[in-house]
Amino acid sequence: MSNQKKLLGIGFFGFIILVAVGFTIYTSQSFEAETTEEPIKKEIPEKTIKENYSLITDLPCENYQKRAYAIMYSGDRSARQYFSNLSLADFVLEIPHRYVHGQPRLMGVFQCNIPDIVGPMRSGRVDHISVAASLDAIYVPWGGSSIGKSLLKRGVVDLIDCNGEVYPGGEGACFRREGPMSMLEKASTSVPDLMEISKRMEYRETSNFEGFPHKEDKPIEKRPEFTEIEIGFEAPSNVKYVYDPESNSYKRYFDGSKDIDYETKQQYAPKNLIVIFTQKEPWLVEVDYTAQGHWDPWQGVDKQHRKNDSGQYPNMQLGDAWFDSKTEGEAIFFLDGEKITGSWKKGREASDRFQFFDETGEEIKFVPGQIWMHVLEDYQTYSYNNNQAQVKQQSEPDSLNEPN
Fold first, then answer.
1. What CATH code is carried by the domain that includes residue 327?
2. Are the C-beta atoms of residues 346 and 127 closer than 8 Å to each other?
3. Residues 65, 71: Cα–Cα separation, whole Å
4. 245 found inside a domain
5. Count of domains observed in the chain
6. CA dihedral in degrees (244, 214, 240, 68; nearest 10)?
7. Is residue 63 a part of any domain in this protein?
8. What burial letters (b/e) apply to 41-52, b meaning 16+ CB within 10 Å?
9. Listed residue (248, 215, 195) closest to 62, CA to CA
10. What DSSP letter does each residue of 149-204 carry, written as one string?
11. What's the chain's Rg over C-alpha atoms?
């Protein structure tokens, strides 16, 4: 073989070696690049469920894995005397209603107890929809405002509308009961029948609500003897609670009288009180909500309802996923007979639960039992008094001024 051919053979063999080495380096680098870009898989702990205990109340509960039903109650003063089975709700929301007056409207959330009669019912608002979603509850109003109905038609929550304005309606589960109340005050529903509609609609049955943190009741010997709280809803809605150390609950009074459940005959006595302070704003057609990065509240609302409803209904800034800018704020908590100053926070997803913190940033742990959440405007107030002697003195009439 000539020297020229030998050189060509050596060169070709060297070329093959260089290609092989280069390919090995390339594939090695490519593999390393791909593996470093692959997202790190995090171990997501499974949600711990305390078997047979509610994630809302931490009480024994046969339906602890089932979805709750968030049912609208009327806020009308004449209807309050007929409130039925609200004392059996796991969670109660009390929140301002119409912008032009201060009568709060209520929503009872039922998971553990499934009463046959709930009512008197009324329509709901966007804030009720948001709180229901945060608890992964099936929302049950008797109608709604134009903005609320428009939102429901976008499918933001599973619902049953007893008034039949938004599909699905509550036929078979919603009715007008017999009794001394007016026709408007007879509007009611049955939770077992709502469950049947949910099955027909093929709504998810298992709750995805992650639950509130809880702790044990304070030992009775360490509980204060007396606490009195007044919630500053606009007049004439006068709400007061008096702490009962024996049951570690807060006995509720309305307009100076015991607030009694029409059906159970029990005085309302939640174990945990939440008071949230936030901004209250009217829905206005002249505001460009989309320019603020929100949904358009008037989408699908006809011109006449836009004209009629602008400025009439409130939107409380509670961090809803659609219209709110404010996602946290001041809050006060009452449990174990004590007052805790702190804050509230809500994630941007509709399903994110409310979180509650004390002044140190520690999340509030509720005691087992019903939670009652009150929402107040920024300027509204509350009063707190743990001096029983002072309260007694203030309530007793001056003998010199008593009539003969």
1. 3.50.90.10
2. no
3. 19
4. yes
5. 1
6. -120
7. no
8. eeeeeeeeeeee
9. 195
10. HHHHTTT-S-B-BTTSSSSSB-TTTEEE--SSS-TGGGEEE-HHHHHHHHHHTT--
11. 29
Q: How many CB atoms lie within 10 A of CB 315?
A: 23
User: Across residues 323-334, what is the average pLDDT?
Assistant: 96
State how far the Cα of 382 lies from the Cα of 279, in Å rounded to an integer: 16
Length of the chain: 404
Question: What's the rounded Cα separation, in Å, for the pair 69 and 136?
Answer: 9
Query: Which pair of tokens denotes residue 389?
Result: 């002697």
Q: Is residue 284 part of a domain?
A: no
Residue 89 lies in a domain: yes
Phi and psi at residue 94, to the nearest 5°: -125, 120
Identify the CA nearest to 134 among candidates 162, 98, 161, 107: 107
Percent above pLDDT 90 for the chain: 75
- Residue 325, token pair as written in the block: 């800018």
Full residue range of the structural domain in which residue 376 is found: 69-279+322-385
| Per-residue pLDDT, 390 | 52
pTM summary value: 0.84
Span 166-222, pLDDT tens digits: 999 999 999 999 999 999 899 999 999 999 999 999 999 999 999 999 999 999 999
CA 17/CA 15 separation, integer angstroms: 5
Residue type, 177: R
Q: Two tokens at 380?
A: 């509204």
> Is the model more confident about 353 or about 99?
353
Cα atoms found within 13 Å of the Cα of residue 124, Cβ hemisphere only: 33
Average pLDDT value for the chain: 86
Q: Residue 162 and residue 188: Cα distance in Å, rounded?
A: 9
Q: Which amino acid is at 340?
A: I
